[in-house]
Here is the input.
Amino acid sequence: MAFPTNRPRRLRANEPLRALVRETQLSAADLIYPLFVVPGQGVREPVTSMPGVLRLSADQLASEAKEIKDLGIPGVILFGIPESKDPEGSGAYDEDGIVQRAIRSIKDAVPDLVVIGDVCLCEYTDHGHCGVLSDGDVENDVTLPLLAETAVSQANAGADIVAPSDMMDGRVGAIRSALDAEGFEQTPILSYASKYASGFYGPFRDAAESAPSEGDRRGYQMDPGNAREALREIASDLDEGADLILMKPAMPYLDVIRSARDVFDVPLWAYQVSGEFSMLCAAIERGWLDRERVIAESLLSIRRAGADRIITYFAKDVARNALG
Ligand code: PBG
Here is the structure.
C-alpha cells in the first residue's frame, strides 16, 4: 500500500504513540556495570580518561554494590589491579587476591547482585600480556592452567559467573574441567568469544594498568577485518562448554553481533568498551553531542543488533535518568 493510504508518520505523532510501537527498549535490568578494584583503604580514585568512573578499594564495595542494586542494575563485572605484578600473573589466582576479596565483600553485602569475575592475566603480569611469555610470544597451553586456577579461585570466593577475556585457544574447556573437578559444575562461563584486537580498549588499559609493555594483542585477539571468524570462535567456545557469549567492542562491530544473533540461540551479550564510552563522554563534554540522547541511542543500537544484555560504564546513568 502506498501514500496517501500509507502514512508512517501517523505512529510518530507523539511520544505515547511512539512508545507503544517501539520495538527495542532500554532498561537498567539489561545492563551490567564494570568495577575496578584497587588495593588500599578508602580509595575512590577517578580514571582520567573515563569521566565518572572510579577505581575503588575493597572497603568501598559494599555501599557501591547496594547503590547499584538499588538502581535496578542486576550485576557487576570485576577487574582487579593487584599490589604487585609478576611474569606469571600470580595475583590473578591468589585465593586472597584483590578480585577474590572484592567478590567476597560484594556477596556478603548484597547477595542478590550477580558478580561476574573477569578471568585474565593482563592486569597481573608485569609485561601486561594476557598469558605467560616465552621469547616474546604468549604461550597458549602454558597459560591455560593459570586461567583455570583463576576461574576456580573466583568461584571459590563466590563469583556467580566467570568470564574469560584472554583469547587463549581452549581456555573455555580448560576452565570448565577445572571448575567441575573442584565442585563448581553449576558455575556458568561467560566467554568473551569474539573479542577483537581493538584500539577502543585504550582507556581501560589506563584504568586497569594493563597495557602490554611491548608488542600488542594481535597475536591472540581477533583481526578487525574478520566477521565470519567470530562465528567460528563462538561455535568452538560453545562446544567447549560456554554458557553465555560476550562480544566486544560493541558499536564498531554491530554487524558481527547481528550475524551471531541470527545463528546462535544462547544468551548473547555485548561490551560497550571503554573507548566507546570515553569518545561519547569527550564529545558530550564539549557540547557537541546531547548526553541523554546519544547514550540511549548507542545502547539501543547494540540491543537492536541482537545483544540481550550490555556491559556498560553508562549503566548507572541509564538507571538514574531512565533514558530511552
Ligand atoms: C582483558 C580485558 C580488556 C577489557 C576487558 N577485559 C582489555 C584488553 O583486552 O586489553 C577491555 C574493556 C574495556 O575497554 O572497557 N582483561
Notes: The first strand starts at residue 31 and ends at 38. The mean pLDDT is 96. The two ends are 31 Å apart (CA to CA).
